[in-house]
């Protein structure tokens, strides 16, 4: 019965057996052909792969050509929360899919570009599909970030370029380190590029490509991880079982266990104990997959870095710095540079075979990481936003220009020390530096910095006025201004009258020989007196009226004298006393200027003045009497003419040094007259087209002293002068001691706000304007000549940044001409027409006689006269 009889085997069975045998032989034959001709199969597979790769590359290149770029510019107070950054990441992940259906996966990505080339600390760009522009233009960051359409960047070739690709190393399911938002996670990267030098061709750029994780690849990876976790758990259970059995055997074979058996009387009974091996622990998804357990907000990333320079070694050093900066994000997984090292050589993105693929991905923006760098969006929060308020940004030449000697477009600010220790002179643009305020304790370096700025401006051809009540600034600046091309432009108005043979310049505030407008002169002089003496319409209406009417008559007298060609017969401010108390002088003056006074003024002298009691004049005459009692002020203000003409000085780019001489009541009155005359002169520039107004810079040292004399005048300067291209620089020890109108105008309009060391209470108003970054305690601890300052450059605020104040002996050492200082002193006094004090005093004493003689000889003259303008010669 081993085989069926032949008559029982049918034809159908024989046919089926033949087919099976034929199939098997065909398979064997085909396998043999494949083995024999394996190269044909391999070549066909390679051809198919190359053809498909060429098609995919063509489509990817075509898709990459339809991309757009946005540049995000954060504001100074940009401070987003975690939720805002996370929402931005969701937007980026969504935008990566805004591609045509035919676009290959490698082109479906959004790129974050962090770029530094020495012109700015860090440029933050987003590049993505053109269809995602509307989605990416509206950010969750709100007004804290300005989104601008960006143009393509074209880099010049550099001599030395290094490339690197970073991949995730470590446990694949572990997250990156949770880096806090304060300080800014971008700070290590910005520190790594903070010493870039544009003139050396330095460049560093980081590109982070983000795309949604492919589902099929993610499922395969999850399956692999689960299998690996289960195998690991089984191996662990088996290892534990072996140890348990080994421990049990060792215990039973021990002498202690055998003695226990003898004592218990169980010897030889029951055999060995039954040992239960441990059961493998159930592997959960969370334990095995970690951050890959959920699909939500999981993306694939590619991190490419390129550094370049025209100097050998700098690019490699920069890459090492960036590598160290990326280590900050390392946790369970970390960013590691792809490649391997053999001795002194490293084989990575810079060498074959990886370099060509790197350059293709870099140029076209394709995301093809060599391994699946899967991360969750919350791991990338530090890279999904521009630098925030918690980030310290270095200053480059594009942020704060470098000072150039003799350049009239730049205004020296100080010395900036970069992160690499290099020091450079920094400046602001003169057209943008409208007003400056410097605060700090005495000796901190405020005046030294102002002097350096003024000297640099003077050598660049600019005009200025330096008002210093204490005169210390003049001898300090003298050697650095003693140049032949400056001597004819410098005038010294010094009221200190020091030395055995003092010399003074002179000025007639109500003189008309320089072509002033009569009512402006009256208003300026009256307002100066009123500000010092606290006169107003409520407290001293009668004194203000008497003084204004007297000035109107004396100005008309001076107008008549100039029209007659006798400017040396003009009245001065001291003739107010004669006008009010001497009937003969008053009668002659009113008769001589009858036609030059308006009807209201003439009516007041005819009807109101005779009714005034004699004691009504005391409040007007007392301050004039104090001026007359001081020989210096008597000589300075008692001359009929003087070359001091601040309007002419502005228009001719003069350098005028004014030293009022102190801060007493008389000195304050002189200061008020000068300040009000400056205000009048600047406002008179309305007769000149704006484009023809010559820039002029008044420097006010010791603002407390100056504003004590003319608070409203100084406040008006900070409010109005910008319109006339006159830019005020003020320095004070205590901002709180300034009158409220001055303080408010200073802080409101300051283009530059600077502070040296001082008490915290004195510095607090300044740091409050900076949002207490830095705080008063930081500024109060500054060394001498150190400043914190905020500046205006190209319409935006820079800083507060720490700046070292320039020291004249260092910054302008090449300009020092001490051997010509005496010659400059003589030339400056000659330009100001200075004369011996006794000579001026004698002339002032005789001026009343000259004016009386003129009034007696002349009758009324027409009021519409033309007067020649005279200024400095």
Task: Give a verbal description of the structure.
The chain is of the alpha+beta class and 873 residues long. The protein has 31 helices and 24 strands. Strands 1, 2, 3, 4, 5, 6, 7, 8 and 11 form a nine-stranded antiparallel β-sheet that branches. Strands 16-18-15-19-20-14-21-22-23 form a nine-stranded mixed β-sheet, with helices on both faces. Mean pLDDT is 83; it is low at 860-873.
Mean pLDDT: 83
Q: So how many helices?
A: 31
Low-confidence stretches: 860-873
Shape label: elongated
Helicity range of the residues? 40-55%
The first-to-last residue Cα distance is 146 Å
- Based on CA atoms alone, the radius of gyration comes out at 44 Å
Summing up helix and strand content along with how strands pair, one would put the structural category as alpha+beta
SS strand fraction: 15-25%
How many individual β-strands? 24
**Major sheet:** 9 strands, antiparallel
